[in-house]
Every structure is written in structure tokens, then in C-alpha cells.
């Protein structure tokens, strides 16, 4: 097995936690090439996480909900992807169906869990924490605690900065970027998107103008959940599928939302990509725990210097 | 049929009663002004009529329809228009998005053309964020946004508040034009002169209830009542 393939295996096995050992095994790959490869890897994850964080951000921006279960929606997306791929024999069917399932799950949860506690931010933390526990333990009870892996639906590698980079990862990044563009087009080019932006700003005036605010809130929660599920189905072939998959994603998403500026959607996307690339690069010279500490320190500095977020001047 | 009939309307903000039994009428084509000092419940009356503030007692009906049975977001489609205090702009939405926010289908081209004839500045700025408009232009947009919904009654909450003095007369003219089309108007206004000039009838409010009803002419002839309930003189 070539060193390049070995490094690729490291990247594939530890999507967010690229271990120091990867550096030592590079052999013929220069450090600059490796750093660039890790930056690309960070970008790939940044785009996928941007989708998930964007879901968190629109839910927070519209409903004032600090959704602690959002990482578990991502986890459910990976589980649903694996289950549907096994059942149907095609990953592409899972890619199509999982976001739709996520939307339906979001609509049901909004009605049962979120609406009774809406506009009570502290209470939503408790309820969504309880939901998080239920989802994790539910998946563990049904699927067991053993991490599983999925075959990538696109085989093969491409030479990239001296390593053989997984084609599926590049597809995942491109597809996530396409979904982000489609989401912003939906927000700005459709009546429903305009209503969502209006309700975010002033639900009362929107109601007086005929906007069905309760329905918009439910749809927005459904969309936010669908985006986490979509992130899950895209990430499933390059991460492990297990009941705790969402645990590491959630703080990363919260950091992206905070650094991007609470409720600032474009800022959230930019911050997710920035953080993932930063962690990818830092991980090339130290271990992932230090990289996460640096991310947290970066967030603290942003909060001190620009309390409204790094991109607070950007259009929301 | 009375356009708007409010009887013994009560509402709370939290546990504090803000409306203690408001009763008023607006007849078709009539302009009615609701006056009072700050905090007497004028805005709360409008919000309670629309269901934006939960009603705790009394009745409200619009063109004979009991508003208790209608969801607040469906009132605009019934023809009950509202221009909130502070204009209720969505500053990051474009002028066009603000203008057509309440419409679900294609806008009526005749109404849109009429609105642009009336407010030509809006047509020039359709793709501009509404937050970049001046206060006066935002008020024009708020009126236009209401008119495209083809209302039969418009509730205006302090439409001249925060507007440059030279634009106040233009706003006043537009409200007058709205009334001349036969659209009923319920006007909440701090500017006494504007209210008396536009209204057919005036209600005075104090402490969450109506305390006086008069025609503008009768009120002009009664400076002590004006001073007692509004703290100003003409």
C-alpha cells in the first residue's frame, strides 16, 4: 500500500480528527503539499458542516431556539442514509429521501416538542437536550453501539497536492456547495423564502400582512432539520455511523453560528468553512484537541472584539 | 353594515390590563381618529382588533364577521389593512418584496400601476432594500403595501410620527385620498391637527377605555376637553 493511500486512509478514517501520525507517514509528500491537502480536507468538511450549521442558524434566527439536538439530527441523517442504502441497494435513493424524511421529522418535532416551549429560550435548551438523549439512546437501542462504516458511492481517487484524494469527498464538497447556493436562492427568490426572512425580522407585522407565521415557523424548523439530515447523508460515507456521531458536530456548529454572528446565515457558512480549514491546518502540526482549543480561543477573541460576530456587517 | 364594531374590548400585557373595555364604531367610508396621551392603549386597541394582542374580553367584528373566529393572518385577505407604528418595514427585504409581501398570487397590474402613479419614488427603487429609504419613503411604502391588498378598512398607527415636517402634508394628502376612495380609516395619531383635519369622528382614550366621542368641529370648540385628555391646546 502506498504512503499516499495510507495518508488518504487517515483522512478518511478521521474526517475531523486528523491525527499527528498522518504527518509522520507522509514519506514522499512534502509538508506544503500535506498542508494544502489538509486545507482542502478542511474545506470539504467546512462545506458539509456549513449546511448543518445553517440549519441551526435559521432555527435560532427565527424561533430563538438553542437546539441542542441539532447534532443528533445530523446523526439521524447518517443512520437513515445507511439504512436506506442497505434497504434499497442505492446510495442515491438515500440521498434523495433522507432530507425529505428530515423535513417530516422536523415538522412533527416542531409540533410536539418545540411549539409548546416557543419563545422560552432557556426551556428549549432543556427540552432539546432531553430530545437529544432520547434520539441517541433510541438509535443505540435499535442499531447498537458499534460504529459502522458505509461504502462511498463513488469509487476512486484523484491526485491532489501530492496525495490521492477521494473523489467522493470532492463530490460531497461540490454537492454541499450546490445545496448552500440553492438554499440562499430559495431564501431570496421564492415567496416562502421571503416570508421566512420577513418573519425572522418582525413576526407581528408579517402576521398583519397575511403571512401564516405559525406555519412558517414549522416549515423553518423542518428545513433546519432537513439540512442536518442532508449533511448526515452527504457525510455518511466519509464518517462513522453511530449513535454519538452528532456529539462532535454540535459544538462545531455552535461555534460557526456564534463566530458568524447569531442569526447571520452567510456569516455562519463563512465561519464554518473558516473553522474547518483552520482546524484542518492546525491539525497538520499538532493534535486535534489543541486544534479545537485554538478554535475555541478564536471564538473567544471574536466575542471580545466583535461581539455580534465576525461577519456582523454582512447582509442577513 | 358597520365596517368595524368593537364592544367592551379588554386585553392584558402580561398580567397588566391595558384595555379595560374599549367600544368604538367605524362606518363604511368613514375616517375615525383615536386620540390620547402616550400609553393609554391606542396601539394596544389596534393590536387587539387584529388578534396580535390576545383579547381577554369583549367582541370585535369586521363587516359583520366576528374576529374571534378568524386567524390573525387571514384578516388582511378579508380587507382589514394595517400600517403599524414605526412603519413596520422589513429593512433587508427589497422595496418590491415589502410591497408584495402579503400577496400570494400575481399582483393586480392595475393596482400596482395606481400605486406607482401615486408613489413614483417606489417604482424607481424597487430592487433597493427598504431600509435604505428615507422615513417618508418608508411611510409611503407602508401605505402602498397596504393598498395593494385591496383593503376596505385601513388602521393607521401614527403615520406621521418621525416624518420630516415637509412630508407630513404629503402623508396627510395620501390618507385623505384613501378616504376619498371609500376606504374606511381608523387613525391613531399624536398630531392633533392632522387628526382633526382628516377625521369625521374622534374618540379620546384614557387608561384603556374610551372617555369621549365627538366630531372634529365639536372638539375644536371644546378646548378644555382637549387639554384634559390630551394635555395640549389647539
UniProtKB/TrEMBL annotation, chain A:
In terms of InterPro entries, this protein maps to: ABC_transp_permease, BCAA_transport_permease
Superkingdom assignment: Bacteria
Subcellular location, in the record's words? Cell membrane
Q: How does this protein lie in the membrane?
A: Multi-pass membrane protein
Q: Which key words tag this protein in UniProt?
A: Amino-acid transport, Cell membrane, Membrane, Transmembrane, Transmembrane helix, Transport
Membrane spanning segments where?
21-39, 45-66, 73-91, 97-114, 121-143, 167-187, 208-237, 249-277, 289-306
Taking the first listed entry, what is the main subcellular location of this protein, grouped into a coarse class?
membrane
Which family is this sequence assigned to?
Belongs to the binding-protein-dependent transport system permease family. LivHM subfamily.
UniProt protein name: Amino acid/amide ABC transporter membrane protein 1, HAAT family (TC 3.A.1.4.-)
Organism phylogeny: Bacteria, Pseudomonadati, Pseudomonadota, Alphaproteobacteria, Hyphomicrobiales
Automatic annotation (TrEMBL), chain B:
Keyword annotations for this protein, in alphabetical order, are:
Amino-acid transport, ATP-binding, Nucleotide-binding, Transport
Annotated GO MF terms: ATP binding
Keyword match ATP-binding: yes
UniProt superkingdom? Bacteria
Q: Which PROSITE patterns match?
A: ABC_TRANSPORTER_1, ABC_TRANSPORTER_2
Pfam families in alphabetical order: ABC_tran
Q: Where is the ABC transporter domain?
A: 4-232
InterPro entries linked to this entry: AAA+_ATPase, ABC_transporter-like_ATP-bd, ABC_transporter-like_CS, BCAA_Transport_ATP-bd_LivF, P-loop_NTPase
Write down the PANTHER family for this protein, in alphabetical order. Answer: HIGH-AFFINITY BRANCHED-CHAIN AMINO ACID TRANSPORT ATP-BINDING PROTEIN LIVF
**Record-stated family:** Belongs to the ABC transporter superfamily.
The name on file for this protein is: Branched-chain amino acid transport system ATP-binding protein
Organism name: Filomicrobium insigne
